[in-house]
Specification:
With 471 residues, this protein is α+β, with helices and mostly antiparallel strands. It is built from 13 helices and 15 strands. The chain folds into four domains: 6-87, 2-Layer Sandwich (Beta-Lactamase), CATH 3.30.450; 105-207, Beta-Lactamase, CATH 3.30.450.20; 209-302; 304-471, Heat Shock Protein 90, CATH 3.30.565.10. It is 46% helix and 21% strand. A five-stranded antiparallel beta sheet has the order 5-4-8-7-6. A hairpin with a 5-residue loop joins strand 6 (168-175) and strand 7 (181-188). Helix 8 (209-264) runs antiparallel to helix 9. The longest helix has 56 residues, at 209-264. The structure holds adenosine-5'-diphosphate. Adenosine-5'-diphosphate (ADP) is lined by residues 356, 360-361, 364, 393, 395-399, 406, 411-414, 417-423, 446. Adenosine-5'-diphosphate binds next to helix 11 and helix 12.
């Protein structure tokens, strides 16, 4: 092991093949054995081989007492532990590397146990939550999770601990020590127990509060834009709305005059007068419904999540646009499938989608004056059960150079266009879980189609509400 033969070794002392820094320890252990202070000793240290190489040995020493004809001596049993030491060193180096990643990482890293108690937290996570590692160790995940996200957290954690899912991923809110709320994105996968360590769950925690704020600001400004564009559309439609309201008003005046005549004669005809009053009431209701519809279009309200019949939405829009369609001589062909399931969503927003498509269609047809303007609207079911609405015109067709750009915000080919209609419509349809696209019309013009996932039965209905509110 040392590279010396016995005769050479007999001329040496142990200090000759020990490193100088270990001389003191070696001397003292030998002295204690020889002075009979101790019977045995154990030491782990390096030895120098004849060729200069260092080897790690674990030496067990024990004193053999003197007999009548031999003095006391020390016996050593030696095990070469160089390989073990090398493995330990590389383990230590690897641990140090991981420790430094843990300590210096800019993302939060924490570990928890099956009872959802914190075991460790790196400085980034401590910073994020405002607690020291010591404080976190006395807390569970429930303490630092926003009350609205606790159930989802527990459900998903149970999923990974019970082996139903390989990893855990969640976006949720956490509560800082100072009470502030932050949004985080967490990814974790459990580490199984070993002989020496129990199981634990290491998690990477990324603070996405700023991103969430930006998303919210974007959502608010989109909603605001949608409202503004709705108002613009409303401006364009004022004439047709005036026409709509004028109709019942004129009818009310006519019925009022008739009523007066039925009452004026000597033998008042009360039955006819009552009929006239009934007509007045009916027309007044119609006028107030039109006003309510207009008000709901301009009001600043968050999107609703209520059952909506898509055929009713189409009928509403045709009601709003009737004046415009009549004025432009557009013939409307409807093919609406009866008994379509309702969808969950915002009726006013969906009206806006259909209205945008109808207005675009009318404008595209106005550009081709010598072709009969035909607007075809169909509603049907797709193979997967979702609803498909198609709005097709006989207009000028899509600009072949930029067919996909029409969905981009502010892309317009119209002199006074804003270029927001299709972009907002896409956002609305996607927020409802659907898709909006265009295809060439047959034989001319353009067809716009959008899908909406259908709901059937109470269960699907409540799922969808949850889905949309999560969006
Ligand atoms: P805007 O109507 O203000 O231009 P949109 O986002 O609604 O904004 O439409 C963007 C562009 O898409 C239009 O300028 C037009 O070029 C094209 N487009 C939309 N609808 C049709 C259609 N029915 N036929 C032909 N082109 C259309």
């Amino acid at each position: 092991m040392l590279g010396y033969d016995e005769s050479e070794l007999r001329r040496m002392t142990p200090l000759d093949y020990n490193f100088q820094e270990d001389w003191e320890r070696t001397r003292s252990i030998l002295a204690r054995l020889l002075d009979e202070e101790e019977q045995t000793g154990r030491i782990e240290k390096r030895y120098r081989r004849r060729n200069g190489e260092a080897v790690w040995w674990e030496a067990s020493l024990f004193r053999v007492p003197a007999t009548e004809n031999s003095p006391a001596f020390v016996t050593m049993i030696i095990i070469d532990i160089t390989e073990r030491k090398r493995a330990e060193d590389s383990l230590r180096a690897s641990e140090a590397r991981w420790r430094s990643i843990f300590e210096h990482s800019v993302v939060g890293i924490g570990t928890t146990d099956r009872q959802r108690r914190y075991l460790s937290a790196n400085p980034a996570l401590q910073n994020m939550l405002g607690y020291s590692e010591e404080e976190l160790r006395s807390l569970t995940l429930a303490h630092v999770t926003h009350p609205d996200d606790r159930d989802a957290t527990v459900r998903r954690l149970d999923g990974v601990w019970e082996g139903r899912q390989a990893s855990y991923h969640i976006e949720k809110r956490m509560i800082r020590k100072d009470g502030g709320v932050i949004w985080v994105n967490i990814t974790a996968a459990p580490v199984a127990a070993t002989e020496s360590d129990p199981e634990f769950l290491p998690a990477i925690v990324v603070n996405i509060t700023e991103q969430k704020k930006a998303e919210e600001a974007l959502r608010v400004s989109r909603a605001e834009l949608a409202r503004v564009s709705r108002l613009t559309t409303m401006g364009e439609l004022t004439a047709s709305i005036a026409h709509e309201i004028n109709q019942p008003l004129a009818a009310i005046v006519a019925s009022g005059n008739a009523c007066r005549r039925w009452l004026a004669s000597d033998q008042a005809n009360l039955d006819r007068a009552r009929d006239s009053v009934d007509r007045i009431i009916k027309d007044a209701h119609r006028a107030s419904e039109i006003i309510a519809r207009i008000r709901s279009m301009t009001r600043k309200t968050p999107p609703a999540q209520l059952p909506v019949e898509i055929n009713d939405v189409i009928a509403d829009v045709l009601g709003f646009a009737r004046g415009e369609l009549l004025a432009k001589g557009v013939s409307v062909r409807l093919a609406l499938l009866g008994d379509l399931p309702s969808i969950i969503g915002d009726r006013v927003q969906l009206q806006q989608v259909v209205l945008n498509l109808v207005i675009n269609a009318v404008e595209a047809m106005a550009a081709i004056p010598d072709r009969e303007p035909v607007l075809a609207i169909t509603s049907q079911r797709a193979d997967d059960g979702s609803l498909i609405v198609t709005v097709e015109d006989s207009g000028l067709g899509l600009d072949a150079t930029n067919p996909e750009r029409i969905f981009d915000a502010f892309f317009t080919t119209k002199p006074g266009g804003m270029g927001m209609g299709l972009s907002i419509s896409t956002s609305i349809v996607e927020a409802h879980g659907g898709r909006l696209w265009a295809s060439p019309g047959l034989p001319h013009g353009t067809a716009f189609h959008f899908t909406l996932p259908a709901t059937s039965g109470a269960e699907a209905h409540s799922d969808k509400v949850a889905l949309i509110s999560a969006c």
